[in-house]
Write a sequence for this structure.
């Protein structure tokens, strides 16, 4: 996967679906095209649903990797 400079980060590990996606989408809306958002999220529904929904919105998933008990998702805003 691509490695890019992270412009901003959000932690949604305490959220449940659909708020995981909603908070990610709202954060992306505050960013400019080409900027990279790092999302820290849990395994399970968030890890399945957030990337799928973000791609459906037209954004690009740059990387998904496990970091301890959580995951880091890198999204490029389109």
């Amino acid at each position: 996967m691509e490695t890019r400079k992270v412009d901003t980060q959000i932690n949604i590990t305490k959220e449940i679906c659909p708020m995981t996606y909603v908070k990610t989408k709202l954060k992306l809306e505050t960013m400019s095209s080409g900027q990279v958002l790092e999302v820290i999220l849990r395994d399970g529904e968030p890890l399945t649903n957030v990337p799928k929904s973000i791609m459906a919105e037209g954004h690009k998933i740059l990387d998904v990797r496990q970091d301890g008990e959580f995951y880091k998702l890198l999204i490029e805003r389109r």
In short: The two ends are 17 Å apart (CA to CA). The first helix runs from residue 19 to 29. The longest strand covers residues 60-67.
